[in-house]
TrEMBL record:
Feature: compositional bias, Low complexity: 270-281
Gene Ontology CC annotations of this record: cytoplasm; neuron projection
GO BP annotation list: G protein-coupled receptor signaling pathway; intracellular signal transduction; negative regulation of signal transduction; regulation of G protein-coupled receptor signaling pathway
Residues covered by the DEP domain: 37-112
Keywords, sorted A to Z: Signal transduction inhibitor
Region of interest (Disordered), ranges: 270-296
Protein name listed in UniProt: Regulator of G-protein signaling 7
Pfam (any one): RGS_DHEX
GO molecular-function term, one example from the UniProt record: GTPase activator activity
Domain RGS, residue spans: 399-489
UniProt xrefs under InterPro entries: DEP_dom, G-protein_gamma-like_dom, RGS, RGS6/7/9/11, RGS6/7/9/11_DHEX_sf, RGS_DHEX, RGS_sf, RGS_subdom1/3
Amino acid sequence: MALPRLRANASIEEKMIHPNHMIYQKLENLVQTMLDPENGVPIKTVKSFLSKIPSVFTGQDLIAWIMKNMNMTDLADALHLSHLIASHGYLFQIDDHVLTVKNDGTFYRFQTPYFWPSNCWEPENMDYAVYLCKRTMQNKAHLELEDFEAENLAKLQKMFSRKWEFIYMQAEAQYRVDKKRDRQERQILDSQERAFWDVHRPVPGCVNTTEVDFRKLSRSGRPKYSSTTHAAVASCSNITLPYSTSAAAAHAAAQAPSCSSSILNGAANSSSSVTSQQPSSYVLPSQSVRPYSQRPGIRRCTRLQDTLKQEISALEARLTKNVLKTSKVVEKQVFHLIFYLQYFDHRRVFDPFLIQPGTAADQFQSHPNPWISDTVDYWQHDKITGDISMRRLKLWEESFEELLCDEIGRETLQKFSDKEYSGENLRFWWQVQKLRKCACRMVPVLVTEIYNEFIDKNATSPVNIDCKVMEQTEENLKNPNRWSFDEAA
């Protein structure tokens, strides 16, 4: 789903598209409560020896307000909530790029609503380049570029080498407009713009709360919007460019101050010179902003919603419809019932609990029932006499597994295999079955014994194995386990 870059005064319908709009709504309601002049966080102007720090509050005041108004008793919970608010850019530390909160006297400031993440900002690299270039023009210690910002500026300068003159002119125009502002106002706007970029271009190692991976999947269908324009044009003509991320644009969106005719003429001349050099990079707001319903991303979203609604309706209709005929269901159930009854009638003669041995119902006329008599001939007669009872022979006829599970059956099959000169195959198979069920400490011992007896070139009872299976078996023996001989068996 494509998410358009929205204006600061975006409608509720537009903001509802964002996947995190519920989180933003809850956080912004809390921030609005904090901004209450009477019951909110105490915001003040701190006086120092040579300067004033306007519109700040301390981390201690914020934590105390959260614990008091949110009914929290654990300090860790209050710190976690404050970290969450700061990581989304609703408040920031005035002299650090890391968006966290400390429970001390560190000063913080609230972000202007123009830069709140609910406005669905998606600033481009060119906007970031203009901001960093403007920072290099301000000869102040607190506005110097950090190491990671200097690296980003070098990368952007290499990326936009052909447009760098235009970017520099934009930054210069914004810098001239900012210089005309009041000192405290300029100080606040500079810090808010820096905090905005700390959220969207975070310090290496910090969490980026603006990453939504699936938004990148549909960027091919997103309309192309113009990059940031001169802040002078935006502020002096009372036109807030919808996608400008400069502090001047934020100030124009919040207050829209009027400018003198001289400033307006100077800004107009600057903008005309820029547009004459780069006509394709500047688009008037009336040309770039299309109606909300005509944006490709929104149309795709609407089609997706319609498709999902149709699918839900189809599934609900299928739930109410009997897609399987009752006759087919009854037929299958009857078939399974008949099959089970036939299997039961066929196997019940071998169960001594259903048909007691030695009674008239016992068709094999075997020895008396050992559970109600003192004799055990029912189990020991075949071993003692060497004769195989009719019951056991009929049971072997049922399946080969019954023969192999019976000790007398294996002995009988072993004798027959020895006569056919293939007795080693059955012994090898039986040793492999014992290997699967032996104790862990006995596995290496049994593997060695089986290999020496059946697999080795000098084995006493070698089995016939093709070359591919032999290679696989030797590969398995490098790390012997219970299943080393499964391919050979």
